[in-house]
Amino acid sequence: MSTPPKDNVDYKCNLITIGDSTVGKTSLLCQYMGQKNPLKQVATVGIDYFTKDIIIDNKNIRVRFWDTAGQERYRSITDNFFKNANGIVLVFDINARESFDNLKIWIQSVNLKVNNTNIKRILLGNKTDLERNVSFEEGEAFAKEHGFVYFETSAKDNVNIQNAFDFLINEVYKAGVLVLQTEIEVKKASIDFTPIKQKKVKKECC
Predict the structure, then answer these.
(1) DSSP class of residue 3?
(2) Distance from C-alpha of 170 to C-alpha of 154, rounded to nearest angstrom
């Protein structure tokens, strides 16, 4: 994949990353974007996003990655973004067994909230640089059972991240579900693209 000129976009692609807090979702995205110090990230609050422009078959595609918080109190916010997603990145930490066990909860959210039956999905077992508490075979079996394609990655060592995200974007493109830029200009999306953490939040009494 190559990078197209700015402001010359044919299609928009929305991908959402989900999974428990601290599994490395933001660090994975920072590595894919080529940002400096990808591991020095604060915890995501609500929803944040990254964008990257790529070219496939001479078509300019603007990919927007919705980076979600893994904390329970933010899951209702996350649910609202599923309906506009073309692809899902579900992440767990192969060093943290609990994050693997909690995948079933995230799968339930996907099945309840996703309207697009043709949505593409990948499962990432992150932190291969650490001691393993979930086997490759377990991760792959879970992915196959729930319709995901499995990859193992390391945000620290930048291992297999490019392959995983490029695979998902290509699968979305081949499925023919991307939105034309001209359609977006005619009909504004109903979703508010302002990152949640940038909005003013009304303080509530504890």
Answers:
(1) P
(2) 21
The encoded tokens of residue 140 equal: 């792959």
Report the C-alpha gap between 116 and 97 in whole angstroms: 30
**H or E, element range at 123:** strand 120-126
The predicted-structure confidence for 9-54, as pLDDT tens digits, reads as follows 899 999 999 999 899 999 999 999 987 654 554 444 456 788 999 9
Tell me phi and psi for residue 143, to 5 degrees. -60, -45
Nearest to 31 by CA among 71, 70, 65: 65
The pLDDT tens digits of the residues spanning 180-196 come to 755 544 444 444 545 44
- Beta bridge partner(s), residue 17: 67, 89
Task: Write the DSSP string, 36-81.
Answer: SSTT--PPP-SEEEEEEEEEETTEEEEEEEEEE--SGGGHHHHHTT
With beta carbons less than 8 A apart as the criterion, state whether 10 and 60 touch.
Answer: yes
- Name the residue among 43, 41, 81, 77 with its Cα closest to residue 65: 81
List of residues 6+ apart from 184 with CB closer than 8 A: 12
Predicted TM-score of the model (pTM) = 0.79
**Domains along the chain?**
11-198 (3.40.50.300)
**167-to-7, 19, 108, 143 alpha-carbon distances in Å:** 24, 19, 24, 15
DSSP 3-state of 204: coil
